[in-house]
Amino acid sequence: MSAPLIEMRGITKSFGAVKANEAVDLSVAPGEILGLLGENGAGKTTLMNVLFGAYAPDAGEILIQGEPVRITSSADALAAGIGMVHQHFHLAPRLTVLENLLIGISGKSGRIDRTGGLARLSDISRQHGLTLDPDLPVSALSVGEQQRLEIVKALFRGAKLLILDEPTAVLAPSEVDGLFSALRSMAAQGLGIIFISHKLNEVRALTHRCTVLRHGRVAGRVDDPANTTSSEMAQLMCGHEIVPPARGPSTPGAEVLTLDGISTSRHAGTPLRDISLSVRAGAILGIAGVSGNGQRALAEVISGTRVPDAGEMTIAGKAVTRFSPREVQALGLGRIPEDRMTTGLVTNLPLADSMVLPRIGTAAFSSKGLLKPDAIRAFAEEQIKAYDIRCPGPMTRAGALSGGNLQKALLARELAFDPKVLIVSQPTRGLDIGAARFIHEKFLDMRAKGCGIVVIGEDLEELLVLCDRIAVMYEGRIAGTLDSADATIARLGLLMTGAEGRA
Amino acid sequence: MFRLEARTSTPAWFNLALPIIAIGATLVICSGLIALAGAGVLEAYGVMLSASFGDSYAITETLVRAAPMIFTGLAVAVAFRAKFWNIGAEGQLLAGAVASCFVGAIPMPGALAILLMALAGAAAGAAVALVPATLRVKFKVDDVVSSLLLNSVIYYALMALIEGPWKDSFSGYPISPPIEDSANFPVLLEGTRLHLGVIAALITAPLIGFLIVRTTLGFRIRVTGESPEAARYGGINVERVLLSTALLSGALAGLAGVGEVGGVHFQVMSDISPGYGYSGIVVAMLARLNPLGVVPAAIFLAAVMTGAEAMSRATGVPAFLSDVIQGTALLAMLVALLFTAYRIRRVGAPA
After folding, report:
1. CATH number of the domain residue B198 falls in
2. Closest Cα to residue B130, out of B150, B101, B155?
3. Top-level CATH class of A6-238?
4. pLDDT tens track for A352-394
5. Which of A81, A135, A239, B107 could be A160's S-S partner, Cβ–Cβ 3.0 to 4.6 Å?
6. What would the CATH number be for the domain defined by A244-332+419-503?
7. Contacts of A55 in chain B (CB under 8 A)
C-alpha cells in the first residue's frame, strides 16, 4: 500500500492519574478500512477525540500525508480532511437534508449555493449508492438515513478520512449490508476509513487491518481480519479467552407477565398496535426489531411509565394496566431502561442516590419521610462489592462511571430485590465483551432462579444466545414469534423488515 | 490561545472558593466605577465595611437587611434545586406582606397574631408560586416568564390596594393601615431593630438544608431537578414534586414579606421591598443553591446595601453602586460556575 493517509505517532493523553492513551501508534493508508477495536475504556474514543481535535494530546504527533499537523478543533480536523460520524448524530432536525449539508459552508458572499449543493449531493449519492431526498426534513428520516446523511455530510466537506463510531449499532441487518457496500466503494476511491465496532463478525467482514487497544495501549494488530477468528480478536481485546455463556435447559413455570391487545396512541415514536405477549417464570423472551418499531413504547408500557389506550397487562396474575412505576415495582417488576445515562441514573448525583432511587420511599431507605443515609450508603457499598462496580465509592458522581459499570449498577439495584419479572432494553449496547458477558450470566442466573425476563435488543446473535423465544416487532406490531431453536438470523431478519409469513 | 476543556470531576474546595473569587472579582471590577465617580477606592470600600460591620449596631442593621434575603434566597435555592425556575420571589414576598398586614391589623393576642401572620404570609406566597408551577405542569408554560411577569401583576395589585381600599384616609398617602402594636415582632436587642424575624430566618436556613439533604422530599427535589426522566422512571411523581417545591419556595418568599411587615415597617407601602425577591436569585447563586450558604451570601448583599448608603453620604459615590455590585456579583458567579464544568487549558503557542 502507498504512504499513510494519516498517521498518529506516540499519542499519549492522561486525565489526572488515568492514562487514557499511552504511546499509541495508528495509521491508515488511502483506500484502507482500519478496524479499531478495544473494550470500553480501552481508549478508542479518547484517541479519536484527539484525532478530531476535541482533546490536545500530552505527547505524540499527527501526520497527514507525511506532514505533521496540529489539530486543535473540529474545524481544524474538517479542514485537514477528517470526517467523523458519531454514535449520536449532529443534525438539525427541522432543516432539510440539503440544508444540513450546507450548514457552515455557505460561500464567502454569504449566499447559499443550492444548485451547486444539489449537484454535489447527487454526485456523492451516485458514486457510493447513498441516496437521500435533498428536500426531506431530517426529522422525517429513519435512523439509517440520518446516518447516511452524516456520511454524505463528511464527504461533502471533502473528507479524505472517515471515522465511524459503532455505526451498525442502530441499523437493521439489511441496512448494514448497504452501509458496508458504500464504505467499500469509498475505500475503492482512495478514502481511508476507521471503523470502530464491538461486533467482531462485522469487523472481520469489512476491514483490511485492525488495531486493538487495551488499557490505553496498542495490544496488537491484526493484518488479515478475514482469516482471524473472532475469539482470537476477543482475546487480544480482553487479554484472556472469552467463552460464550451457555443457556441450559429450563422448565418454564407459570405466566409472570402477560400483555393482551396492548395499543398506544401516537405520542412519541411508533405506537403499539394490538401487542399480545406472555412471559413465563424461568424463561427469557427476546424482542427483536429494527430500532424505532415500537420497542420504546413497549418498554414504557411494561415499566409503568406509559398508560396504554387499550389492552390489559398482568404481572404475577394481577391486572396492572394503569399502575404507576412505583406500583409495578412493588409487585416485583425489575426494570432496566434503554438509556442508562438519562433514564436510568442521575449522572450529577452520587451513585448511591441512583441505586436507591426507585425504592427511596420504602422502609429499607427511609422512614416517616426521613432518609436513612447509613442504610443507603451500606446498600450501595454492598452492591458495588457484589457486582464489582469499578468506582471510588458510593459517593462518586454516577456520571463518572463507564457504561459497563453503570449497567452493572442498574442491574444491581433491580436484582437486589429479587424481581419476579425483569424488563431490560438494550442490555449490552455499547458494552465491551467482558461486561456484556457478565450481564448475560446474571440474566441466566435469574432465569435459573425462576425470574421471567424480557430482553429488548437489536443484536440478534445476543438474543439467539440468551432467549428461549424471540418475538419480532415491526411497525408497532408483533410480526412473529419464534422458538430460538427454530430461529436463524435470516428468518428473524425477514420478520424485521415486515416480510410476515414468508419467514 | 486558551480553550475550555470539559472537567471529569470538580474539586470540593471549589464550592467555597468560587463565591469568594466571584465577590473578589466583583469588587475589583466595581472599583473602576468608584474611581470614575472621583472617590478613593479603598476609602469607599472602607466606609462600606465600617458602616455594615463597624460596630454592633451596624451589624444588627446588616442582619435586619439580610433577613428577607435569607428567606428569598432559600426560596430560590429550593426552587432551583428542582429546576423550578422561580423568578417570582419578589411577587411572593409582596403577597406575603399584604396577607400578614391584613391579619396583623386584626386585634388579638400578640403571640397568636405573629403566628397567624406567618401562616397567612406563607400561604399567600405559596399560592402565588403555585400559579407558574401549575401552568408549567399542566400546560408546559415557561416558568421563568410566567413567574417573572406575575411579579408585576402582584405589584400593581398591591398598588391598587394601597391607592384604593387601604389608602390612609387622614394623610392621603398610599400606605396601608398599620398592624396592631401587639402584632409588632419583639425586638431582641434593646436599642436596635433586631427582630424575631431575623432569628427565624437564621433558624430556617439549616432547617431547609436538613430538608434537602435528609428527607425523602429533599431527595425527590434533588433527583427531579437533576434528571426528571430518571425521576419519573424511578417512580417519582415529578409533577407533584414540582408543585410541592413551588409551595415551599413561595411560602419561604412569603415569610420574607411577613418579616418586613411585622419587624420593620409594620404596614405595607409601595417600596416595602427594594427588590429583595430579585436579590434572592443572586443570593441563591452565590450560595450555589446550598441553604447554609444562603446566610453568608445574604449577609454580604445586605452589607453592600447598608454600606453603599453610608459610602454615598461620605464620598459622594451614588448609592446605586449597590445595585451594580449585586448585578456584577451575579454575573461573576455565573462565569465562575463555568469552571466547575470546564478547565482552561493552554493550547500550544502558534508555530
Report:
1. 1.10.3470
2. B150
3. alpha beta
4. 999 999 999 999 999 999 999 999 999 999 999 999 888 888 9
5. A81
6. 3.40.50.300
7. 5
